[in-house]
Amino acid sequence: MHRTVRLLAALAVTGTAVAGLSACDGLTPGKTFEDDAALSERITSVRVDNNSGGVRVHGRAGLGKVTVHREVEYHDGHKPEGATHRVENGTLVLADCGDECSVSYTVEEPAGVPVSGENSSGEIRLSDVGAVRVKTSSGAIGLDGVTGDVSVGSSSGQITGRGLKGGSVRATASSGEIDLTSAEPQDVTAKTSSGRLVLTMPDARYRVSAETQSGGKDIGVSQDPAGKYRLDLTTSSGEIKVRQG
Asked: For 145-184, how does the pLDDT look when each residue is reduced to its tens digit (9 = 90+)?
């Protein structure tokens, strides 16, 4: 009986110690809040400059004011004071919120506004925007209806694109699948160290370069060494598939 009591007491002390370590290591859930802002300034571009948190930017035809919805998670003593976005000469900057704090943005803006910048940890989702030049160290990148040149990179995360048109596309992933669909013929350069490459391209004649060290190749578009558009595709490990659609 006494041995059982001593064992239960030891387990209780161990559990208390583990709980204390968890709290010290910041494993406990943080506090959260959300807010919204309507901008009076005219926005001509968006720049992502965030450390932790997702970013979504949606273009809307005929939209007047730009709106910013913010979701913030923080730990005690690290609640951000005031706005974490700012406007610099017409550029909306989506910034981080400091130490032990994560902020996710959803922006509604007029269609066709270009987006650039970097998100250290978190996904980036862009729809009906202009030219795109973004990267993330950890997180997926999703594009829909981009009407300009595209240059995107993810160290760890899938890259997808739908309805791409109006410029060339360059996509690079260290680890993750790349799946792109073009709404009109265009140059595409796609490279991933580990993952499949899937392209869906309109009918046209393409100069195709496809290289994979481990995986099959299925090229389903017309290939012409003198074609106007170039598809340059490379993966170290994964299938390369190009289809017409």
From this structure: 999 999 999 999 999 999 999 899 999 999 999 999 999 9
Q: At residue 173, what are phi and psi to the nearest 5 degrees?
A: -135, 130
Q: In the chain, what are the domain boundaries?
A: 140-245
Give phi and psi for 7, each to the nearest 5.
-65, -45
Across the beta sheet with 55-60, what order do the strands follow?
Answer: 31-39, 66-74, 101-110, 55-60, 124-127, 141-144, 159-164, 178-182, 197-201, 240-244, 217-219
**CB-based burial of residue 99 (10 Å sphere; 0-12 exposed, 13-18 middle, 19+ buried)?**
exposed
20-50 confidence digits (pLDDT tens): 333 333 446 789 999 999 999 999 999 999 9
**Residue whose entry in the numeric block shows the structure tokens 């550029």:** 91
